[in-house]
Fold this protein.
Amino acid sequence: MSQYSPERKAALLKKLLSPMTVSVAELARQEGISAWTLYTWRKEAKAGGASVPEQKNKQAEQWSPEARFAVVLETASLSEIELSEYCRQKGLFPEQVKTWRQACIDGQASTKAQQKVDKEQSRSDKKRIKQLERELHRKEKALAETAALLVLQKKFNAYLGLSDEDD
């Protein structure tokens, strides 16, 4: 297995991950490198926190949550101009990055609120279950009483010698 310098690897990854991405197969043919090596490098870059879209030409809204979070982290300290340049390189819009950033903030802020909502929902569910169990018990008692009355009516009719059709 041949070793590639970190500079060459970075240059090839840049071609692979830029907004005008070259397909892995095309880049492998151009550079004479195994496609599996390029897939592995792309996977390692993604695992390392790089904002790697899943596929070529994939819509920004279809990026994985990890890739979105990586973009938010990479752009956290950028100015508007730098953000615009970054977005052009990645094939994004600044509004998308701002939306993703807000989603990250909302996700962290709403954890306690979500727990509170879940707790209240659990209470109301328990109350509803208890109410339904009481109603079911009441209906079972009524059904048992009706069944007992029918049995008694049949026994009474049998005692008097009446048939069920005489009713």
Q: What stands out?
A: Helices lie at 6-17, 24-31, 35-47, 65-75, 80-90, 94-160.
